[in-house]
Design brief:
Layout (H helix, E strand, L loop, with lengths): L2 H33 L7 H4 L17 H18 L34 E3 L6 E6 L10 H9 L2 E6 L16 H19 L5 E6 L2 H14 L8 E5 L7 H9 L13 E3 L12 E2 H23 L9 E6 L7 H7 L10 E5 L15 H8 L8 E7 L6 E7 L7 E8 L51 H5 L7 H12 L2
Parallel strand pairs: 2-3, 2-4, 4-5, 5-8, 8-9, 9-10
Antiparallel strand pairs: 1-3, 6-7, 10-11, 11-12
Helix pairs in contact: 5-6, 6-8, 7-8
Length: about 500
């Protein structure tokens, strides 16, 4: 290349390198300045509780009883450093950290932010339930009660970083989550015995934690391998923001840009779920799901995919949190035929909102409805017809091409056009999230049936957050499916 030709090439290369470097930096600075417009940070955003479990807490002989003792210390610290410092002012009337608020977790018969055990008199098996990101064991309450009613020792794990204050998600990692799950799984096997069935249930981010633990157990004879895994709205693939989250928080060490470490800073009105959300948590979730996909690929390459226990998944076809295509192609199409099942809840075709509904979900539906053999069973819950609210379950067995219809004897409630990521685990009469909660004589918080109207940009929480359906009209059908797969 002559000197004359080199100059334009070097100039072009320099320009490309400048764009590659400058654009991310400018975006980072833009986001950092934009984050300053978020609400002020409160004590629950800036405090670190030092008694939280991390993988460094783990030592040989550490048991679930030790985990619970450490959790006791953590919640005592929560009281001393947070609850004792949040005044009962009118501004805190709907604040979960105000002990006089109807949002205070202590108003419930059990603090469902904490790990729990349900122990039947005659144990017939064991189940470990792992909740999602920013969530709490409350989300696993109804599934836990189902297994307990069937004689199962039931353990609902509080995943490290959860159930206390949103700032704790800045100080835990995916390794802490899986280590805690390992301790809990050993406890379930200990309580249920070696010859009893052991099931694992994972919701949202609890799904990759469950799969990560299972993959570890396949390589470690000392760990119990679950006989079956149940996943609910699993975060097998997460949205693009999670990929960028690590970079968007880079300037948070500067006090002026401290808020850039937060995706959301919102009022904490939910007793069992953080409203505020950290970039660190999003990044850890992304790393976890990426690692799970890579480990499943490795299992396939080594012809070991058949070692995975059967997996049954319940998923809304529209989900603003996770990528359903990753669930289908990065997990289910890589499984060996083993009575795995994917249960999909489609949208309400009779909602009268066709013109307003994004039709992108139909690409996923068309993929699943193809008359081709798959290594898993498919069930799709949908309307009997576009002019009916009644529903049917379209079912196709693994390695078959034909769908058959089964009447569900259930209908879409009027005004509900779909399920959501957060809705699946709660029946309509759940006192907190149900759209048809039980009547109570005392003031209680109902988040599932709020109907508020007014001008936009007035509320301190987003309208989509309030609109999002929080309970499942097909919860009984989901429980019936679980019974079928467990013969309970």
């Amino acid at each position: 290349m002559t000197a004359r030709k080199k100059k334009p090439f070097i100039k072009t290369l320099s320009f490309v390198l400048f764009i590659i470097i400058a654009v991310p930096v400018l975006l980072l600075i833009f986001f950092a300045f934009s984050s300053r417009k978020m609400a002020d940070l409160e004590i629950w955003h800036t405090t670190r509780l030092i008694n939280e479990f991390t993988m460094d807490s783990y030592r040989e002989g550490y048991t679930f009883e030790d985990y619970l003792k450490q959790e006791d210390l953590l919640f005592e610290e929560l009281t001393d450093r947070i609850y004792d410092h949040v005044p009962a002012t009118p501004l805190n009337r709907l604040n979960r950290f105000n002990r006089e608020s109807i949002c205070f977790p202590g108003n419930y018969s059990r603090d469902w932010n904490r790990s729990f055990e349900l122990i039947p008199a005659n144990i017939k098996g064991g189940v470990l339930l792992i909740h999602g990101l920013s969530d709490a064991p409350y989300s696993m309450k109804h599934v836990a009660e189902f297994f307990y009613s069937k004689g199962f020792y039931t353990l609902g794990l509080r995943v490290p970083g959860h159930g206390t204050i949103p700032a704790q998600l800045n100080y835990v990692t995916r390794h802490d989550w899986i280590t805690a799950a390992t301790i809990a799984a050993r406890q379930v096997r200990k309580m249920a015995g070696r010859d009893m069935p052991f099931y694992l249930c994972g919701y949202s981010n609890g799904a990759p934690i469950s799969l990560g633990y299972t993959l570890d157990a396949l390589d470690d004879p000392a760990l119990p391998v679950p006989d079956k895994i149940f996943l609910f709205s699993p975060s097998i693939g997460v949205t693009k923001l999670a990929v960028l989250s690590r970079w968007l928080s880079r300037l948070s060490f500067i006090p002026y840009f401290q808020k850039s470490n937060w995706k959301d800073i919102l009022p904490e009105y939910n007793p069992f779920k953080y409203s505020s959300f950290t970039m660190k948590a999003s990044h850890e979730s992304h790393l976890l799901t990426t690692e799970i996909q890579q480990r499943i690929d490795t299992l396939m390459k080594n012809n070991r995919s058949s070692e995975l226990p059967p997996i049954v998944t319940f998923q809304s076809i529209v989900d603003a949190t996770t990528k359903i295509n990753d669930l289908i192609f990065q997990l289910y199409y890589k499984l060996s035929p083993k009575n795995n099942e994917l249960v999909i809840f489609s949208v309400n075709e009779n909602a009268g909102l066709e013109i307003f509904i994004n039709q992108g979900y139909r690409n996923v539906l068309n993929t699943l409805m193809k008359p081709e053999k798959t290594p898993f069973n498919i069930t799709i819950v949908t309307n009997k017809s576009p002019d009916s609210l009644e529903t049917t379950a379209k079912q196709k067995p693994e390695n078959d091409t034909v769908f058959t219809d089964k009447d569900l004897n259930a209908s879409w409630p009027r005004g509900i056009y779909s399920l959501s990521h957060i809705a699946l685990l709660f029946p309509p009469d759940d006192p907190l999230y149900g759209y048809d909660p039980p009547v109570s004589l005392k003031p209680v918080l109902h988040l599932g049936n709020l109907e508020i109207r007014g001008e936009v940009h007035v509320l301190t929480v987003s309208i989509p957050q309030l609109m999002r359906i929080k309970s499942n009209p097909f919860f009984d059908f989901m429980m019936k499916k679980i019974r079928e797969h467990t013969e309970l």
